[in-house]
Amino acid sequence: KKNDCPVKNQNQWIDSGGNAVYVVPLRALATEITNKLREKFSCQNCAMRRKEIDHFTLFGNTNKKMEKKLDTLGEYFEIPSSVLENIQEKYKCLLKSKYNMPCLDVMEYTGDTPFQPINARIIVTTPEKLDGCSRKLSFDYNFNLMIIDEIHLLEEERGAVIETLVARFIDKNVKNSTSNVKTPEDDLNNFKPIRIVGLSATVTNTADVAEFLKGPVFHFDDTYRQVPLKMHLIGAKETIDCSLAELEDRRRQYSSNDLQKIPDYKYSDSSKGKSRQKGFGAKIDRNKPIKINNFEEILVEKLLSVTGQTLIFVNSRYDCYKTASLIIRRIILKNEKQQGKTQTKTYDLDAYIRHGIGIHNAGMPKAERQRVESLFLKFELKYVICTKTLAWGLNMPAKNVILYKTKYYSDGQFRDVSLSDVLQIVGRAGRIDYINKEKHTTSDGKDETKHLENFGTAFIISDNLNFYTTKLKIKPPIESCLLRNMINCLNSQIGLETYMSLDSCIKWFKRTFLYVRGSKAPGNYGFNLERESLAFQNEESVPIEIQNYDVTIQNLMNMAITKLKNCNLITKSDLFQSTAEGRIASYYYIDFRTIGAILDFLDERFSIKKLTNDFKNLNVHENKKSQIEKTTVKNDPEIDSVRIQGKTLTNHQTLFDMQFRNLVFTEFSEIDLEILFLLFNMKEFSQISVRAEESESIIRDVQFFTSKKSFSSDKNHLNVSEITVSPIQKLIFLVFQYFRSIKPSIFSLVSDTNFIKKNLSRLLAATEQTALLKERFFVFKTAFLLRKRIDRGTNHKIQYQEIQNEIKIKKQMINEHFCTIFEVNMVKDETFAFFIASSVDERQNELKDDQEKIFHASMFHKKTTLYFAEDLKDFEITIFSENSPMVYKFKEDKIRNEIQKIHLTNLDGLIPYDLSFKKERIALIENDVQILIDSTLEKQKNWSTVSNILVIHDDKIKIKNDNSRIFHFNVSEIMYMIDEIISKSLDIRDIFIAGCFSLELYEKMHRFESAAITILERNDICKFLDSVID
């Protein structure tokens, strides 16, 4: 019930008309919390209307699921007004909710929901989603209550995101939207800080977390648990030696029906120090030790010993399917005939569900996860094998919980599951909503509710018993993980232009959980506070520990800032400011090392063909800097080998690598593979591994596609045991299959394909924006088309269409410069990629990109105007739609040949902006024009006479200054009001054109003869004006 209390008891928040954000760790939990909050806090009409919008954004008009599209220009995908018309008045709803409160609209905003405006009173989201949208300058959703569920995740790698969110909002003040403001003092008092509430069932150092959140602690111990829990900690080795007779006796003790055919085992032969495989058909010494999987035996024993539904937690997606197959083989099926049918590995979810087993992990589509949850809630599944997706807060009717193995692989080593996660997992057993009932089928075939024992049971199967018994006794405090990801978090904060000095960066750090724990356990973070600081020697009033800690923080911030400067993500002077590259990294939520690698790839000094050659020579899975040391060519296929980095690869490996290269080059170009190879080597894909089952499947499929014969063909047979499939090969092959509309034969590969689609789309979007910034237009086009194929799905057939009326081309003489102007206005309201290429070979030698004759590229939404300070000839225009398969062509013969002469002067300053996504650029311009206004007013204080300021701005820019000497109009207003302004004889000396430049507007501004004009615009427009105006 802890999910309801924080919202239900915030009467002050509800009365003030504010908004709330509910942060949960998982998308699956977000869906459950959203439904519960709608039931409790929304009226029935508003809840139904919001569900209609959710259904539309997922399924559209065709009732087919749409994948989320990433809009590179920062524009939201608008929901048609016909769908929204019933919910426009939701804030004026006079109906009451379950608690007799005003109706509160609740919205789910996670990675499972496509982009849509945030427009509800309560938002349920995940930490990464909230961080990803709130780090954008265009984020304008104000809330005064933030609830963070499962806040003990601070000690996980994701905890850095929670720390970033709290540090971003903890001191932010929001306005009370319903109070009456009569005086300036009332307006000042009307702003209140955001209230942040943390929820957890496993935090031990609650005082530290309270200090971090700047609030009190409300502690509830185990006596408040309504269902008792019996927890069993089982310590054992995963593999043991056991004779066949002992194994059968062991199985007979817990199940007489489990005396199944013993599979082949490896016999231990201590005299020879070797293990050898022995088939079942041979004579077996029943007293000779064999290797058995002890954990599997324990799991089966415990499952057979309990009643009711059971959640089995494993530590990888692959283990979900492996464990499900084990349960089918050892428990569900009773005879050898049925067992033989399951030995042909099937990884179809329907097959598992037919046996009463469900699978749940983050790699599955939302529809499949919800299907498993629904069946389990209806008591139609007895077992669900899951990862931690069901550990954090999701209420499921599980009487029993088993944590199957406590080791997991991460960052190149095996780690123990944290104590917080263990406590969360065992807490899923015996949930109060479901513990007293279970669906039961009677002998006559009728369903009835069967009452169960009023307690939950949890088993922890571990090979590190001492670790967990010690942890459970001591209950160590949770620690911060911000240090691992601090540079990325700091980059996002600098990108918000809130923290632009060293002091403000230190102030930001002091709002983190790392600051709290670092002062109390400095050794855990490598902080040395024992040395005295010369800088504070004379300050006797400050304890030496605090003095040293302040110096440590300052050094830490200096290190992070230097790192960002070296990666060209910020400009370092007295004040720090994000570069366009830094904003791209923050916008697309990518690691600073990833954006650095992309920049290196795009560097003009980098040979673009080098990576392709390395890709060809090194069989993809070796490091691109490796060199072939030795190649031996023999006729005997058993001894042919190639030696790379000291590893001898057999001829089977060489043959497979050759087949793999030939296959992928049928789908991808060289530059495609260069980009994929670059991105798949980044941190975002570092945890992808290749299991034995997956390796065998990939080898079989590659050989089938290349030879068009079955894998068992004697002529083309490869020895799977002598072939290594690398993670890079696996990733590229899954993209290959996705583009070919081929579904992987193993369900774990299906999960990995979904993971690739989400992350690769984001990285490709960052690559194309960086390539556009560096004017590597061919790379931009390649990344754009790759991302389009990822986003649009497999059935993406390009359709070509010639256009005429959508593009108007003007030739003008501006200050004795021949200029070409393109006015583009597309019919469809969507995002487009615009390319201008030379149509003759002579221009080829002048281009930076020697692969294609593109000399300009840009992105725009529906309409744009492009200016070129030269007389363009012999060109062709190609426009790609981002959201549809349309490709538009335009030929130069449709050009307008009339030439107009224009003279432009009075240009005082140009402020360029490199960002392509419009919302972020507009937010930057809005901030800078406000600074210009304030600085101009400050200068005029020392003048004998003061003048007025005219600001002309884009419709989406808001001018906050209400000074009587400031006149501001949007671009549509000024065009018909300029005569009225001039007639009033206003003394206007400064004109700021903010994000709405046009030649027509600039000409009209010349009527203010004494005014200095400053233009804040896109970088390409500023370059044009700088070229034609002296």
Automatic annotation (TrEMBL):
Span of domain Helicase ATP-binding: 1-221
One Pfam family from the record: DEAD
InterPro entries linked: DEAD/DEAH_box_helicase_dom, Hel308_SKI2-like, Helicase_ATP-bd, Helicase_C-like, P-loop_NTPase, Sec63-dom, WH-like_DNA-bd_sf, WH_DNA-bd_sf
Origin: domain of life: Eukaryota
Any one Gene Ontology molecular-function term assigned to this protein's record: nucleic acid binding
Keyword ATP-binding in annotation: yes
Domain Helicase C-terminal, residue spans: 299-478
Keywords: ATP-binding, Helicase, Hydrolase, Nucleotide-binding
SUPFAM superfamilies recorded: P-loop containing nucleoside triphosphate hydrolases, Sec63 N-terminal domain-like, Winged helix' DNA-binding domain
A GO-annotated cellular component: nucleus
PANTHER family xrefs: ACTIVATING SIGNAL COINTEGRATOR 1 COMPLEX SUBUNIT 3 (PTHR47961:SF4), DNA POLYMERASE THETA, PUTATIVE (AFU_ORTHOLOGUE AFUA_1G05260)-RELATED (PTHR47961)
Protein name: RNA helicase
Organism: Pseudoloma neurophilia
Lineage: Eukaryota, Fungi, Fungi incertae sedis, Microsporidia, Pseudoloma
